[in-house]
# Entry
Amino acid sequence: MDLEKFKSILQKNGYKITKQREVIFETLLENASEHLSPEELHLIVNKKDKDIGIATVYRALQLFEELNLVYKLNFDDNRYRYELTRDEEHQHHHLICTQCNKVEEVSYDLTSNIEESIKNNYGFEVTNYVLKFFGICSQCQEKNRRKEI
Ligand SMILES: [Zn+2]
Ligand SMILES: [Zn+2]
# Structure
């Protein structure tokens, strides 16, 4: 995914390429490894264009989601986060630190056996899945250890 592809998808679907949409999408691209909430995204976007309000960010994200450009993630931490939709055969999974809320990505293909067994046992064809692992990240573990001493 890049800015050109983004523009052509907007046009193909009959949406205008506004400067605001472009800045917002560009910021998502630049922070592709992050899993930004609309509020976090808004803060970064504002460094480039201080006239873009939070409502514009929400609307843009909603549109990007409709166009399948972004994927909305819910880690049960009272906010939604977004990441760019990627072409990958198996979706990556997330490690969520319950202490600092950091999100890391893992790309283990640990699910082909699960897909297989679901198909055999339930006759259900799995096309997508999301795995969330909740726990304590290595940095927080380190911090906790130091606190204990
Ligand atoms: Zn942590
Ligand atoms: Zn991710």
User: Anything to note?
Assistant: Residues 1-87 form a domain with the Arc Repressor Mutant, subunit A fold (CATH 1.10.10.10). Residues 54-66 form the longest helix (13 residues). The radius of gyration is 18 Å. The chain has a mean pLDDT of 90.
